[in-house]
Amino acid sequence: MILAIDAVALALVLATAPAAFVWLDGSRPSPLVAAASASSNGLPSPAAPGGSGTATQAPSAAAPSVTPVPTATITYGNGTWALLLPMPRSLWGAAAAVLADGRVLVVGGAAGASSTSALATVEVFDPGSNGWSAAAPMLQARAYPAAATLADGSVLVVGGSRGGLPLDSAERYFPDTGTWVSAGTMSTPRTQATATVLLDGRVLVLGGGSQGSPGFASTNAAEIFDPATGTWTPTAPMSAARASHTATLLSDGEVLVTGGASTYHGPKGTVTATAEIYNPKSGTWHSAARMSVARYHHMAALLPDGRVLVAGGWALTSNSDKSLASAEIYDPATNRWTATGSMATGRARGSIAALPDGRVLVVDGVDPAYHVMATAEIWDAASGRWHNTGRLWTAVMWPALAVLHDGRVLVAGGALDAGAAHETSASEIFTPPAP
Amino acid sequence: MKADVPSGARDGRAARLSAVAFGTFGTGLVLAGVISIATGIPRQAYNLAPLAGPAAVGGRLGEISPLVAAALAAVVVASIVMMLATRRLRPAAAASELIALGAAIEVCVVGAIGRIGYAADGSVLLAGIFCLTGGAAVLMAGLLAALVSE
């Protein structure tokens, strides 16, 4: 009798394995049509990925050694997402900068829901091998910093927050030596700020959250870093305090700033629809036309014709506000905003990339129901419409994104839920479909 | 002359042995799966970087808590199985413990399956299957222990 029961029990236990396999195999994102197939975009062919040791690689100095890693290509409808081995660690809220040699630096970020888990780590992506390695850590841990690649090839990282407090420090990474050097102290601490490289090589740093708990207030302060002298100089402030705004270098060298919130954390702030333009030659601001709706945590990209596309974001700091699907275009020549097609769904805290061919890609983010999304959409200037370009493997918000020199787009890390309770080390690379 | 052994007692011994065997099998599978996922050997989970060492467990507890919970449950299963084998625990109590722990392991593993169910190339990760199957074996061990006559 017991033997019969044993046999049944054993059969049930052993049946668990194939049943689980079938369940997992069928539970991939539905648009997946081909997994682990031979690469068609020049990436290494997939192979059995062993423990690559990416999590234990010691920080290296100058050019970090990179172990080529296998990838798998996944084709979703149009465009191709290639899975890469993960970064050495999970993070979100990092900044990315493309080096002159094509490698991508992912700096800082957080390994938890707040800046108490801010990271000083630096991950380097090598597009040649599609591999990750660790570089020398920053001098200071920074969640939500801003980063910019300077004309001399160095990378400036400014602000961010640590332990709940915005930072006023800045540092500079020199790829030739693989070292970080202090870049001085700003006049105002700031997190979730922007850093824009001007045509003359200087860096304009704008806004961001400047105060910690309980107010979490943003600042309107603006200052300029001069790489030649390594000094910070305050410049005229913006008309409004802004955090989680956008700053876009226009074709004529001016900088367009849009939206932002008066606080960078919590539901008590106000979000603005205003926009303004900074003239680096005169060091002055002049107002631009207002957007149709207030936005923060939105996305902006410069179009080849000199206009600026702005999409998504939230209109209120309320925790129940639904992310916006709308998009609009600012024309500096006419100082007017024009509505363009809306995205398929609302999207805030996503990432945006201006593709070399003029199209614009948005990925990931938070949808109106406060779920993180794995979708990606491409805006086509010819039609003024958004086209779904499939899904990423992992749904995240606030990933690090960089457009590689060869036109591919790297998406790495991000928070796995809107509350950022978990983050990921996942990285994927996107090869855009033909226009 | 050989004494007759009541058939109920024979079944009880067999059920105890079966429960111990299934419990041991399940514990081994769960621990093997968890260790494989945590070390990335032989294959790395797609969405979970391997631990740099034992010291990294504390720093990444939030990320790997389901795995840690499943491993701890498996360790407790091993001790219960040992007590059941040495008759230091009533079978009925062992049964309820094993069923609860088996269910806990399954819940932990299924909850984390998005991170540990797939390998870096997108294929199904065998270590995740090990964990699920191990949890099922522990559940079966509990059901079998319930058949053990006192």
Structure notes:
The complex is a heterodimer of chains A (435) and B (150). Helices cover 6% and strands 35% of the residues of chain A. With 435 residues, chain A is mainly β. Chain A has one domain (66-431): Neuraminidase (6 Propeller). In chain A, the strands form 7 sheets. In chain A, strands 1-2-30-29-28 form a 5-stranded antiparallel beta sheet, with no helix packed on it. The longest helix of chain A is centred in the N-terminal third of the chain and has 25 residues, at 2-26. The termini of chain A are far apart. Chain B starts with 6 loop residues before the first helix and ends in a 5-residue tail after the last helix. Classes of the chains: A mainly beta (435), B mainly alpha (150). At the A-B interface, helix 1 of A face helix 1 and helix 6 of B.
Compose a concise summary of this entry.
Chain A has 435 residues and is mainly β. Chain A has one helix at residues 2-26; strands spanning 72-75, 80-84, 95-98, 104-107, 122-126, 131-135, 146-149, 155-158, 161-162, 165-174, 179-190, 194-197, 203-206, 222-226, 231-235, 246-249, 255-258, 275-279, 284-288, 299-302, 308-311, 327-331, 336-340, 351-354, 360-363, 373-380, 385-396, 400-403, 409-412, 427-431.
